[in-house]
């Protein structure tokens, strides 16, 4: 099953991240594909912010992991890993970061997941963000790989009515 939703602005991207967060938990891997500036970090940060808000930490700083490569957060539902693999050349660096172990029990958001190679989790939610029509907004395409993604896909499909999307 795939879902396509037009996110017309940053507020819609934030709503998508928050909606998705409600359906995620320990052991989930969300892989974020897209060009530089497509909104991968913004979507992940919105989801992380919603998850931290469950613990009263909605104002916590959530930096992009571009330079640190990985940011880790303790949240009520699960430890959260946000990784940006853009500067890595392949799976070896992912092993050194500890991603292989994180996939087993943490909630992981991974930007530039092409670098994972054979470490790519068998069960994952693939989100592709592209620039919208005429460069406005973002087009979010979601594909569930493996079982257990019904709630996440329903959360994203529910955005379609208000954001111009289709399932």
From TrEMBL:
One GO CC term on file: cytoplasm
Gene Ontology MF terms in the entry: ATP binding; metal ion binding
A biological process term (GO) from this entry: tRNA threonylcarbamoyladenosine modification
UniProt keyword terms in alphabetical order: ATP-binding, Cytoplasm, Magnesium, Metal-binding, Nucleotide-binding, tRNA processing
Localisation per UniProt entry: Cytoplasm
Cited InterPro entries: P-loop_NTPase, T6A_TsaE
Superkingdom as given in the UniProt entry: Bacteria
Cross-referenced NCBIfam families: T6A_YjeE
Similarity field: Belongs to the TsaE family.
Protein name from the UniProt record: tRNA threonylcarbamoyladenosine biosynthesis protein TsaE
Lineage: Bacteria, Pseudomonadati, Pseudomonadota, Alphaproteobacteria, Rhodobacterales
């Amino acid at each position: 099953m795939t879902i396509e939703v037009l996110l017309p602005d940053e507020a819609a991207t934030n709503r998508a991240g928050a909606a998705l967060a409600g359906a995620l938990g320990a052991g989930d891997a969300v892989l974020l594909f897209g060009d530089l500036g497509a909104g991968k970090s913004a979507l992940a940060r919105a989801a992380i912010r919603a998850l931290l808000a469950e613990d009263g930490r909605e104002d916590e700083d959530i930096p992009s992991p571009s330079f640190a490569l990985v940011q880790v957060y303790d949240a009520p539902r699960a430890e959260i890993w946000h990784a940006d693999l853009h500067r890595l050349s392949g799976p070896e660096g992912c092993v050194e970061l500890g991603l292989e172990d994180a996939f087993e029990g943490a909630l992981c958001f991974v930007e530039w997941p092409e670098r994972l190679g054979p470490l790519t989790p068998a069960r994952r939610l693939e989100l592709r963000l592209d620039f919208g029509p005429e460069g406005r907004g973002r087009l979010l395409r979601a594909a569930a790989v493996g079982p257990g993604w019904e709630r996440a896909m329903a959360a994203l499909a529910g955005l379609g009515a208000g954001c111009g999307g289709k399932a």
